[in-house]
Amino acid sequence: MAGLARKDILGLQEMTVEEIDLILDTAEALKDLATRPIKKVPTLRGKAIVTLFYENSTRTARSFELAAKYLGADVINVSAATSSVQKGETLKDTARNLEAMGIDAVVVRHSMGGAPHLLARALRASVINAGDGLHEHPTQGLLDMLTIRQRKGGFKGLKVAIVGDSYHSRVARSNIYGLSKYGAEIWLAGPSTLLARGFEAYGVRTTTRVEEALEGADVVNVLRLQLERQEKGLFPTVAEYHKFWGVTEARLRLAKPDALLMHPGPMNRGVEISTAVADGAQSVITEQVTNGVAVRMALLYLLLGGGEPA
Amino acid sequence: MNEPKALLMDATQMNRALSRIAHEIIERNKGTEHVALVGIRRRGIPLAQRLAARLKEFEGRDVPVGSLDITLYRDDLTELAALPVVHKSEVNFKLPGTVVVLVDDVLYTGRTARAALDALLDIGRPAAIQLAVLVDRGHRELPIRADYVGKNVPTSRRERVEVHMTEVDGEDFVALYDIE
Question: Is the pLDDT of residue B29 over 70?
């Protein structure tokens, strides 16, 4: 198979193992581009891509922007704060107006789960989900998978501990959907108020004892704690969170000696992760960022490189 | 696959052609001191490796060999039915001061060679670039000419030239087919 037989990238839940393999293989081949003196190829010359961010993001938006530019596409960035959204324009109308200007793809982040799906149905252009509500963050899921595959060679039988606020985490969901397809053993650990439920069908195990999840883990993916959750009373204090669920050097020693330490960023040092762990030998956090550009290049190439989308 | 209408080269003829090209490379560059070979994926890579082995045999020097994937540089992606799979390019030697011999199996419209030139120049700035092909079948659409040619074959556009190599296809021969 060459090319993706789909117009949009909305989530890993709906993707096949073959599709994920193709994306990761393509990302692997494209990764070198970012390290070359001339970081630009003409592959997507003449294509126009819009990043439409209704939530703040630096890393994901810039990562998409760089990926598109490395492949020779033109990019415009629209953030809700500076767009007609402030004047009451609906999401659909915003996207339709952009499409009328001739764009080929929209990268969208929205606080509402399903917003990218709505756009995908309304537009001829490809839609890539850059995070929707509590639903999915497929490109983060894919870059996590690329990082794991590069370091561990595969996913089958790996124990992956996802630590922290999985309830509000679209990263956790994309990780669960993606990794479970390959037979990884997934654990969620965190305070009971912040634990995602209902993933038994995917073989996911949950625990409030972070030590249980870390014991013998091959991969430790630490989730960002959104500090405003404390105001909602979902955990007592930041200090207590760190004491019980923070990933520290002592706790990381429970995992395998060669376990990977991952974090989708931005980190709250001293809260969900200690500085020693974040900067430690097992940390692959900066590799994740590099892989993010490669994965996004792969998706843009596979969606926009060929003729008419399927 | 349909039957070939003509055998253009057998294994012996391919060997002879590669030996001749290797001698021409040495002659033209006055040795192999500054020479490197870069094969264009896919069959250009084993061809480059075979040429490097001959250069070593004739001159007693190892010549660096790299590989180039030109998928990202194609100017006809939107015309293709299936999107090509992207592979890594590997050029692990310094390009400044080096004469790079690009190696491909068939030279046809010249678009692949043009893409390879772009791809190589984006990686670095070689002292010079030369082009070696096993078969030149004509029908150029760009002003590109090979420096080293194994065999010139007049063809029609309704024909297809296929190079088969042991490393990829299990045997060595070049044949002409009708396009179905």
Answer: yes
Name the minimum distance, in Å, from the CA of A171 to any CA of chain B: 27
The answer to whether A262 and A295 are in contact (CB under 8 A) is no
What percent of chain A stands above pLDDT 90? 81
Please give the Cα distance from A11 to A172 (Å, whole number).
Answer: 12
Q: Does the distance separating the beta carbons of B89 and A37 come in below 8 Å? A: no
Which tokens is A182 given?
A: 């390959």
Interatomic CA distance for residues B117 and A227, integer angstroms? 52
Longest dimension (CA), chain A: 56
**Which residue blocks in chain B are alpha helix, DSSP H?**
11-29, 44-59, 111-123, 166-169
- Helical pair A59-70 and A285-304, crossing angle rounded to 10 deg: 50
Phi first, then psi, for residue A241 (nearest 5°) are -60, -45
Q: What's the complex ipTM?
A: 0.78
Task: Report whether pLDDT(A122) > 70.
Answer: yes
Amino acid (one-letter) located at A102: G
Residue A287: Cβ within 10 Å count: 16
Handedness of CA A92, A96, A99, A104 (dihedral sign): positive
Interface residue A71 vs chain B (CB under 8 A): yes
Identify whether the C-beta of residue B101 lies closer than 8 Å to the C-beta of residue B87.
no
Q: What angle do CA A138, A6, A108 make, to 5 degrees?
A: 45
* pLDDT tens profile A156-211: 999 999 999 999 999 999 999 999 999 999 999 999 999 999 999 999 999 999 99
Distance CA B72, CA A67 (A): 13
In sequence order, which residues have a C-beta less than 8 Å from that of residue B121 and are 6 or more positions away?
A: none
Residues of A in contact with B83 (CB under 8 A): 2-3, 301-302, 305-306
The answer to whether A145 touches A196, Cβ cutoff 8 Å, is no
- The pTM score is 0.89
CB-closest option in A38, A42, A306 to B83: A306
The better pLDDT of the pair A57, A274 is held by: A274
3-state SS, residue B115: helix
Mean of all residue pLDDT scores within chain A: 93
Q: Does A266 sit behind a cis peptide bond, omega within 30 degrees of 0 on the bond before it? A: yes
User: How many other C-beta atoms can be found within 10 angstroms of the C-beta atom of residue B27?
Assistant: 9
